[in-house]
Amino acid sequence: MRKIRILLAEDNLADVGMVREALNAHKIAHELHVTVNGEEALAFMARMGKPGEPGCPDILLLDLNLPRADGLDVLRELRRHPSCAAIPVIVMSSSDAPRDREAAGIHGVICYFAKPMSFEEFIELGQLIKDALGEG
Amino acid sequence: MILQRPGKSEALGHNIGVDDNGMTAQADRVEDLQARIRLLEDQLREARGARPEAELRQQWRTFDTALSHNLDFNYIFDLQGRFTYVNRALLSLWKKPLEEAVGKNFFDLQYPDELAARLQRQIQQVIDTRANLRDQTPYVGAAGETGYYEYTFVPVIGETGKVEAVAGSTRDITDHVRMKEALALSEHKLQQVFSQAPVAIVVLRGPEYVVEMANPSYCAMVNRDLVGQRFEEVLPELGSDVWEAFRKVMETGLPFVKNEFHVPYDQNKDGVPEDHWFNVVYHPLCEADGAVSGLAAVCSEVTTQVIARKELERANRELEEFAYVASHDLQEPLRTVSIYTKLLLERYIPEDPVAGEYVGFVRQAVGRMAELIKDLLIYSKVVHENDTEWGTADLNESLSQALKVMEGRIGEAGAELVVTTLPTVRGEASQLAHVFQNLLSNSLKYRRADVAPRIFISAKRSGQDWIVAVEDNGIGFEPEYSQRIFGLFKRLHKDEYPGTGLGLAICQRIVGRYGGRMWAEGRPGFGATFYISLPGCEAA
Questions:
Q1: What SS3 string covers B156-180?
Q2: Amino acid B8: pLDDT
Q3: Residue B510 and residue B216: Cα distance in Å, rounded?
Q4: Is-contact A24 A18, C-beta < 8 A?
Q5: Does A68 touch chain B (CB under 8 A)?
Q6: Which residues in B have their CB inside 8 Å of a CB on A?
Q7: Of B72, B64, B76, B74, whose CA–CA distance to B127 is shortest?
Q8: Region of poorest pLDDT, from A109-123, B27-41, B290-304, B374-388
Q9: Whole-complex ipTM
Q10: Which of A114, B23, B84, B501 could cross-link B489 (Cys pair, CB 3.0–4.6 Å)?
Q11: What angle do CA B385, B386, B391 make, to 5 degrees?
């Protein structure tokens, strides 16, 4: 089984850990690239897909509440990307503000994952990733 | 009088002297003299313009009739100030026939000395100066009533240019005087109201808004002189809103009424207009033909109140913002604590009974914290969320939403629910469902151990509002706690019952948001009743 390439934009390392837990729990073979702030995410996207650089990820897991650059800016930039614009995106957020949901909705976000309080619920993220990639 | 004087011709004859020889000649001369005298008398009569008695009497009747049907008093004095003529109006006041009045002066007619002296003096004055005189005097009538007369004396000038008599007329002007007095009094009162009113009043006239009047409150308010000047010159810094309002009043003739009208101007004259707010009424002033010729502006300053309210609103918003952000940001680390404690304890600590107990403590604490934060978020969101226009909420719908959530717990408790038909009110159905859910939850939570819970939900009309009652047969509470239970984090039964102490505070906030009220009655051991009053959906 081919490894799924995942770009994770998340500043909270505890949540990065949980994403790993979820991927492992669902036995998803993966290659995870983590950017811990908005700037880093934008810089990575500027490089990806170009010759000699990492290719397009299979999916973007994006925390909207990023330092240094807003998660929505990252999303906007991705949708303008010459070769990677069409990849599925799961937004992860501790905010359930309708404003964020609406904004994310405009940019074709496949799924809005409100970070849950319990371990078991967080593990469900693995299933969402599988669904997003059509590998149910 | 001179027409027949036989004696005269005799006397004349005697004076001439007669002898027997010249009898005829003398008789002729006498006849001739008599004819000449008659001629002279005719010429004299003609010269004097004297008329026959009948003609004089007719003239007298004409004037007397005319003057007697005059409601005013008319009269004539001779040069000694004695009445020679009095019309019927005055005679009937005196209750005297003309004969008793003629030849008498004011003293003779028992006028009060002072008045009589004054009138006689004034008659003499008219004779001396040949000029008209006009004056007034108060009077006391026969029935003791008081009044005022206005009178005028005019000289009657004869052919030779001498004053022959003085004619007078007197009019009762009591009504006129009283009216003027009443008018002056009411003007005085109005003036007092105008000048002592705590509200500022200014009257503006014409298309240029010239200041006609401004009461002291107004002058003090604008802190400058303004009467007689164009309003624009006095207060050039006034914003366009005021001029627009003036224009509307002048054009439409309708008053302009506005509370908390923002009118910045430079009250302290430091060259920089400050913010001021007024409750204002600009009232049109109309002419008799209906044309609007000006306006009266009545203003009472409410700047202090508006600033205080704005400050309060700002503080409240900040507080809500704070509660929202705080509870939101608290949730983040708590989530990590919650998840990783569990992971850590389950995965890395073996089956240790003490560790198991500690895991329990951590979980409980995290759970409680999560609940508190969740409720705090709900509480702050009730107002934090977009305050868009809300519609109407069918409370039956709200209740069934709440029952759906509470179904399990109601079943578990074996509770009996009685519900009457509920009204439609102003509000949002799902938020009011939250209120029902909370109250049902309370009723179940605070039930009596030995009695099956019974909850009765009903509604009744009260004016424009609906009052919904949720009544239970639970443990109730002491009446003195009926206010406290709505307070933030207030819990009467900390030990025995779980809860955050925010439930009722949230309910009250939701109900308050829709212009309603919430209160409770309780009797320990008998149950509690919670009341929600909400405006009916037809209330504007």
A1: EECCCCCEEEEEEEEEECHHHHHHH
A2: 39
A3: 48
A4: no
A5: no
A6: 328, 331-332, 334-336, 338-340, 342-343, 370
A7: B76
A8: B374-388
A9: 0.80
A10: B501
A11: 110
